[in-house]
Amino acid sequence: MRRLPLAAGLLALLALGCWDDAERPVESRLQLTLSQDATTGGPGDTIAATGRVLNIGQMGVRHPVSCLYGVVFVGVKNPDGTWFDNGVPHPGCPDFCCGTLDPAEAAVGDFNFDGRIYNYDHVPPTLHFTPPGLYTIVATFGDLEAHGEFTWRPSSNTALYAPGAPADQW
């Protein structure tokens, strides 16, 4: 007979949530994927890549949000391992913190690589293409990274690779 009141009391404590949430196991799990539409390209082509992070955990995950690339960063590394920079000036803007990626919520970031490099040190700005080689696509979200690769092939028009090549040749 005494077991019934004791069991009812324990159930009441559970229902009232008297146990501290910090003592419960917290699970935040994220899945980062990278997709790309091609593995080879060259002048006149565009390689499109999308990074997607999915919260497959039970808790929301706070994260910074960048005014330049949003939640998921997607960029390209040159064959020498340095980050590709197309030379286009970016507006100055502060990152802000934070957003929350709720359970089952996803966020994406995109990057379109067409190999064009602009040189704004000249008036008018000049354009040339990045050299041929094996490039690496990198998607990041916090400490997570996903990678892909593509081969950038040469054009038959070698003038495209010279700084200051006329834009009408691409």
Which helices and strands, and how do they pair?
Elements: H1 3-16, E1 30-36, E2 40-41, E3 47-55, E4 61-65, E5 73-77, E6 96-101, E7 106-113, E8 116-119, E9 126-129, E10 133-141, E11 144-152
Parallel strand pairs: 2-11
Antiparallel strand pairs: 1-3, 3-7, 4-6, 5-10, 8-9, 10-11
Describe this structure in words.
It is a single chain. This protein has 170 residues and is mainly β. The protein is 8% helix and 40% strand. The chain is built from 1 helix and 11 strands, in the order H-E-E-E-E-E-E-E-E-E-E-E. It has one helix spanning 3-16, and strands at 30-36, 40-41, 47-55, 61-65, 73-77, 96-101, 106-113, 116-119, 126-129, 133-141, 144-152. A 4-stranded mixed β-sheet has the order 2-11-10-5, with no helix packed on it. It is globular, with a radius of gyration of 25 Å. The N and C termini lie far apart (88 Å). Residues 1-27 and 158-170 have low confidence and may be disordered.
Biggest beta sheet summary = 4 strands, mixed
**How many helix segments?**
1
Q: What letter string, H or E per element, gives the SSE order?
A: HEEEEEEEEEEE
Cα distance, first to last residue?
88 Å
Q: Looking at the structure, what is the overall shape?
A: globular
Structural class from helices and strands?
Answer: mainly beta
What order do the strands of the largest sheet run in, or round the barrel if closed? 2-11-10-5
Average the pLDDT over all residues and give the rounded result: 76
How many individual β-strands? Answer: 11
Low-confidence runs: 1-27, 158-170
- What share of residues are in beta strands? 35-45%
Which percent range fits the helix content? under 10%
Over all CA atoms, what is the radius of gyration? 25 Å
